[in-house]
Design goal:
The chain has one helix and four strands. With 70 residues, it is an alpha+beta fold. It is elongated.
Length: 70
């Protein structure tokens, strides 16, 4: 197995989040996998498992969602 770095675009979604200028994060995750394709899948799963909904400053429930895996 080799180590791969995978770049993901993650967006904050939920009620009350701005639509014109979304709140996004560009994240790089390092995973061990046999191929680059497997690394992309594994990185997306790792990030999705850590998506925990929470209440924002306005009291609305929001969460981070994987939008794209580069």
């Amino acid at each position: 197995m080799a180590h791969y770095s995978v770049r993901l675009l993650i967006r904050c979604v939920g009620k009350g989040q701005p639509k014109r200028v979304p709140v996004c994060e560009d994240r790089i995750v390092i995973v061990r996998a046999n191929t680059h394709a497997a690394a992309k899948d594994k990185a997306a799963r790792v990030v999705q498992r850590s998506e925990v909904p929470y209440k924002n400053a306005r009291g609305n429930e929001v969460r981070w969602q994987v939008i794209e895996v580069y």
